[in-house]
């Protein structure tokens, strides 16, 4: 027998979750393969997603997640890669105290093709995770860290349009400061989310 801590895989934590089946004819979500992190959520009814369209799809499930846990509604990579269909608010958060039906808000990002969801289709996956609650402690200075205030692409790693070269290090202004969102956009980097003009 393999010794604990010597490469033996730890058994996954198993958390009992009480479930109400709002549509008993719909199969329960299940983990498709041993080792999967997400259990597939099924659509309770048919939905047509036009190109660029979205819809909130019921799953026929209501949960009572234990305190200290949350469910995260993640997109399925196959739907995303093959059809451009993803979860709009991905991952959606299912709070431990939520007793309503778990819903999946789907977005069809394909600009040309509609996508039809049929009842029983596996449209998203639910990942159950432990979550902490933050107690916010106001301070004047934050402790230093290797990253500091660098973010939003400060470590580079993708090719800006035009020069065909991946950036390999932090993107900074000539005097070494971080790029502003305007400088990012004029150097071909992505804008900082949330800093667009209303
Ligand atoms: O993909 C999702 C996201 C959320 N929910 C449910 C469970 C969650 O507990 C509740 C509220 O979600 P959230 O807090 O994200 O929504 P909100 O827009 O902030 O609404 P609220 O004001 O109700 O908190 O809606 C889903 O069923 N699916």
Automatic annotation (TrEMBL):
A GO BP entry: dUTP catabolic process
Pathway: Pyrimidine metabolism; dUMP biosynthesis; dUMP from dCTP (dUTP route): step 2/2
EC number(s) from the headed UniProt entry: 3.6.1.23
Region (Disordered): 142-198
Segments passing through the bilayer: none
MF terms (GO), sorted A to Z: dUTP diphosphatase activity; magnesium ion binding
Pfam family, one: dUTPase
Source organism, top-level taxon: Bacteria
Catalyzed reactions: dUTP + H2O = dUMP + diphosphate + H(+)
Biased composition (Polar residues): 179-189
Cofactor(s) listed in the protein's UniProt record: Mg(2+)
CDD domains assigned: trimeric_dUTPase
Domain dUTPase-like positions: 27-156
Residues annotated as binding substrate: 76-78, 89, 93-95
Cited InterPro entries: dUTPase, dUTPase-like, dUTPase-like_sf, dUTPase_trimeric
Annotated function: This enzyme is involved in nucleotide metabolism: it produces dUMP, the immediate precursor of thymidine nucleotides and it decreases the intracellular concentration of dUTP so that uracil cannot be incorporated into DNA.
NCBIfam families associated with the record: dut, PRK00601.1
Family: Belongs to the dUTPase family.
Full protein name: Deoxyuridine 5'-triphosphate nucleotidohydrolase
């Amino acid at each position: 027998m393999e010794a604990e801590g010597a490469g033996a895989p730890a058994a996954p934590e198993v958390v009992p979750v009480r479930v109400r089946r709002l549509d008993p004819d719909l199969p329960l979500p299940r983990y498709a393969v041993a080792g999967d992190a997400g259990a597939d959520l099924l659509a309770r009814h048919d939905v047509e997603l036009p190109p660029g369209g979205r819809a909130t799809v019921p799953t026929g499930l209501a949960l009572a997640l234990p305190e200290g846990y949350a469910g995260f509604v993640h997109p399925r990579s196959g739907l995303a890669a093959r059809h451009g269909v993803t979860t709009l608010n991905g991952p959606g958060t299912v709070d431990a105290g939520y007793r309503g039906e778990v819903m999946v808000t789907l977005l069809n990002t394909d600009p040309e093709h509609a996508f039809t969801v049929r009842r029983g289709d596996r449209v998203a996956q639910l990942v159950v995770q432990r979550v902490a609650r933050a107690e916010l402690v106001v301070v004047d200075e934050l402790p230093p860290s290797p990253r500091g205030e660098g973010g939003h692409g400060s470590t580079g790693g993708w090719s800006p349009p035009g020069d065909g070269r991946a950036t390999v290090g932090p993107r900074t202004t000539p005097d070494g400061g971080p790029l502003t969102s305007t400088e990012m956009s004029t150097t071909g980097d992505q804008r900082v989310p949330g800093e667009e003009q209303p």
